Amino acid sequence: MSQVLHTPPTTQAGPPDDDLAALAARHGLAVSGARPSLPQYIRQLWARRHFITAFATAKLTAQYSQAKLGQVWQVMTPLLNAAVYYFIFGVLLQTKKGVPDYIPFLVTGVFVWTFTQSSIMSGTRAISGNIGLVRALHFPRAALPISYCLQQLQQLLFSMAALVFILLAVGVPPAVSWVLAVPALLLQFIFNAGVSMILARVGAKTPDVAQLMPFVLRTWMYISGVMWSIDNLLSKHSDWPAWATDLLRANPAAVYIDLMRFALIDTFHASQLPPHVWVWATGWALLAGVGGFIYFWKAEETYGRG
Amino acid sequence: MAENSTHIGHGTAEPTPTVIADGVDIVYRVNGTGAGRGTATAALNRILRRKKAEQAAGVRRVHAVKNVSFVAYKGEAIGLIGTNGSGKSTLLKAVAGLLPVENGRIYTHGQPSLLGVNAALMSDLTGERNVYLGGLAMGMPREHIKERYQEIVDFSGINEKGDFITLPMRTYSSGMQARLRFSIAAAKDHDVLLIDEALSTGDAKFQRRSADRIREMREHAGTVFLVSHSNSSIRDTCERVLWLERGELRMDGPTEEVMNAYEEFSGDQRTRKKPAARKRAAKPAPEPTATV
After folding, report:
1. A65 touches chain B (CB under 8 A)
2. According to its UniProt record, which protein family does this protein belong to (chain B) (predicted)?
3. What's the start-to-end Cα distance of chain A, in Å?
4. A10 touches chain B (CB under 8 A)
5. Most exposed: A9, B91, B105, B269, by fewest CB within 10 Å?
6. What would the pLDDT profile of A51-65 be if each residue is shown by its tens digit?
7. Does ipTM surpass 0.85 in this model?
8. Does the predicted model carry a pTM greater than 0.90?
9. Which of A25, A31, A62 is opposite residue B2, by nearest beta carbon?
């Protein structure tokens, strides 16, 4: 019962439009490419958790698979980074004045900051850099930025192993407070994933953002007290307005860095922490995590199109 | 959506539809085709006048698919034919839910999937890890992949010439890569399977095996859509054919009828525009697109 159709093809003997919609409804067919509801989306994401972890691990191992030293670079890279910062800030610029245990102080700062920085940077490219994957397969797109953050978390765990080695080498004794590193990292991971998802959506629509982010991130790094002590600076400038002081202390990167220092270094005392530090850390994580996730989901059906 | 669940008269005899396209229009928007593309002022102009007329911003509209309607039923294998640029792949992407439709609606049963995992695979990883990664990316549970692992490797024939599955994929020949990709993609049971010229990968032996596999998937699952320029593979696999021309559905019917009309049509073209037709005739099997 075929027939050559001269345009328009709907003049075919077949059912008119209303009937097609009715037919679809009768058999429970769903509209293709529609955005799932938020609970559905979370369920789908949970169903893909193995993909998220496998993708993260695969990215991490693929990273150094062509190098002769292979996975040794996982530990070497952060150590070399720390050495460069120590040379510049510790030796040349003498920021170490007034900071006890400067090496662990600096290295902790660099590692924790690098975690946030790389998470956000790779999150920005999570969609725009994987457009082929997004266009070929169906999965909740939030899997990509989350997976990249997980990769950075795995990377950080390698760095932390190196850090423990450095701590013991310079004579910082192991302490019960080291356990606090776990909740601190967890909160930071949620914060990073949230910011990554926000930038993944922005970067998917405007890839130019990826060019801009290194500058934003570098500025952010220099005001976050990665290689100098915010506490020392503020005690020197007690004449600064209160809002500037609060702003410096509430900065999420500074909060997570100082938490980690407090957990790991015994000479970094609670008095050096910003007030209500755990409240801030949790607040930032929730705000970025929940907000970022919803913001990302809102554009779910648009990724990889156009 | 209509709430027509109490519709009587269509009893159990009615075949189950799996894909319904209802007056589908697909329009591509291509950025920055206007004069002065790439210059800073043009880019600035585009950003500032974002909401203004698209034409002013240098956006060109390409009407790739025009008012296409069809109903695909369970158990059907449907071929999509048409000359290059007639909108076949675009329509397939829209059915998969990967491209938005401008007008109309596409309803589907379950999630139609394009037969394609290559984007999820990483050439620096071993074939073995890629089997898992690809399977997970397609949404297969880990246990399923484990169960089918041997089947996938055997089907791809990667290990026929030695233990290659434990080597990084970048060391494979392009044919071996294509075979592994197809094997991973074909390991999953799909409700609606969309294949874009996948059958022309691999050597003759592998092509036969993949044609068999497609037939098998069709029996297991719902519906198969196949885009191909190879008339013989359409005839082998499909019993129904949609013929798209310039984005319009020109014909929809049993394979033989539509193929005969299509061959007559392309034959007509051949007598009219000889040089172009000869070029096409010299290249009977089109190169596989990057969808596997």
Report:
1. yes
2. Belongs to the ABC transporter superfamily.
3. 37
4. yes
5. B269
6. 999 999 999 888 887
7. no
8. no
9. A25
